[in-house]
Structures are given as C-alpha cells and as structure tokens.
Amino acid sequence: MSGTLARFQSRYRGRFAPSPTGPLHFGSLVAALASYCDARAAGGEWLVRIEDVDEPRSRSAAETTILTTLERYGFAWDGEVVRQSERTALYAAALTQLAARGLAYECACTRRELERAPAGASGERVYPGTCSNGIPADRSDRPQRAWRVRVEGGVIEYRDRLQGTGTQHLAREVGDFVLRRADGLFAYQLAVVVDDAAEGITHVVRGADLLASTPRQIFLQQLLGYPTPSYLHVPIAVDAAGEKLSKQTRAEALRDDAALSTLLAAWRFLDQLGPSGSNAPGSVGEFWLWAIARWNPERLPPVQMLPAPIAARANPHDRV
Predict the structure, then answer these.
(1) Is residue 35 within 8 Å of residue 75, measured between CB atoms?
(2) Could you tell me how many helices (H) and strands (E) the chain has, helices first?
(3) Considering only CA atoms, which of 82, 30, 50, 69 is closest in space to residue 205?
(4) Which domains does the chain show, CATH number per domain?
(5) Most buried among 6, 41, 108, 287, by the most CB within 10 A?
(6) Does pTM surpass 0.90?
(7) Do 101 and 149 contact (CB within 8 A), yes or no?
(8) What single string gives the DSSP state of each residue in 2-36?
C-alpha cells in the first residue's frame, strides 16, 4: 500500500462516501457539495465510494439511485466507483496485522451485556474491558465473537479545519472499540481507515455527525502506519425537532426537477456568497463553474448543526 500512497501525496484527493440504505436527501447534498467544491477549488480529485460494509442494510437499488442522482445534480467523479463490499480482504489483512501485534482481541460480550456498561461523555457506552485479558469462562462457549482494538491510554488530539482542535481520551470516553462485529461484518471505523489509505485520500470533508469518529480513525491510522488526512466537518442539516435529516426522519429525497434550486439552497445553507442579478447561474452546469470559483471554506458556519430549509425536512407523502 505504501507505493500507492506515495503516488497521491502531492495532490488533493477527496471523496464522497454515501451508504446505500436509501436515496440522497438535502443533508447528503450539503456534504457532497462541500467535499466536491473543496476538492475542485484546490484543483484536486474527487472520488465516490459506496459504503456498503453493512451488507444487510445495503440495497443495490439505493446505490443505483444515489449514483444517478449525483450525475443529474452535476457531480463528476474521478475513476471507478469503489464499493466496500468488494474490499473485505483489505480489512481482514489490517485486522490480522493488529491481532498479530497483540493490538486486537476477540470479545464474546452480547449487546445486552454492553447496554449495562457506563456511558462516556458523549453518551456512548464505554466498553469495560471484559474480554481484554481473555474471554471469561462463563462466555467461552459462545460461538459468535467480535474483534476489538486495544486503546489502553490512548489520547488523541486532532485539528479540524472548521470545528477547531479537540482531544479525546479513548479509554475513558470510548473503550476498546469494535473492528469486526460478531456477525462477521467489518466495522465502519476500520473499513473507512483502510479505504482512505488505499485510495490516497488527503482531505476528508463530511458532516459534523462524524466528528466524534475522527479520534478513533486517527488512532487506527497511527497503529497501521497510515497518514492522517486533513479533516473538515461541515454542519449537518437538522429538522424542526433537532434530529439529523435521514431516511429514519423521513427526509425528502432529492428531486430531479429541482436540481439547480436545491444546489443553491445547499450553497446558502453553508453560508457561501449567493448570486445576484446577471451573476446568477442559469443551469446546473453553470452553477458548478460559478460555485467552484467562489468556494470559501472560511465562510462556513463553525457549528455542528443547522436547521434545514423547511422544504427539505420531511416528505409529506411518506407517512409511517
């Protein structure tokens, strides 16, 4: 992998990595627009990765819809689309490396048992280390086992281009976290770190809901000898109840017949300078030429959440 990394270090390489569990919505568009503009304004490359590592939740139809929507909204990516479901051998090799060095171990704890663990500062359950020195005798007959990484006294300091500096004490706030689930599927944290390194990603621009994952990913990068990309976490769009726009909150799917107006709404959401008079783009193609030339990360709101435009919050035809 080192030769691959060396080829890419001199140039900006960004990526957009949606999960194929449903169609793109306004919140997805905000993250895609920010990452695309940041890459293109720097003269860099922009890749698309389908994060279908959680195969039971992934849908091939959703992937098709996502890629079609990106094309209709004028996104043009570099290279072939990468799918995590086709890269499990890379994740297995990384896990094997960590296990061989004594940095990862098997865990036979059940989800119900973990629900009794204390909560950390973020409200996340902190793994108490039950299996860190070997699986206890009363759990040794359980056939399904996860793999966890040892965080020990790891303290990770990071700098985000928008959110500023931060520190996380992994042992106190997270505990030994999962790399491969008990059902055999690899965890997001390991997969994304391996993928970013394999693709030579130099800049990660994504929603602020993933900011809390950044220390874990930096920790894995350090253990595996990978470079750490530059991070920029833009505000996520939330509904009137303060919940992130998502399929679960019935966020309206992006409409094919409103691409230009929705792109402009996402642009305004990110507090970028809007068009005026004859300067206004009249098509999706014109929008991208106009937006990339005017992209200014320093204008981004330094917050983690912002209310979405009312029209983007919920689909009135989707009632449950």
Answers:
(1) no
(2) 11, 12
(3) 30
(4) 2-86+225-308 (3.40.50.620), 89-189 (3.90.800.10)
(5) 287
(6) yes
(7) no
(8) HHHHHHHTTS-EEEE---SSS--BHHHHHHHHHHH
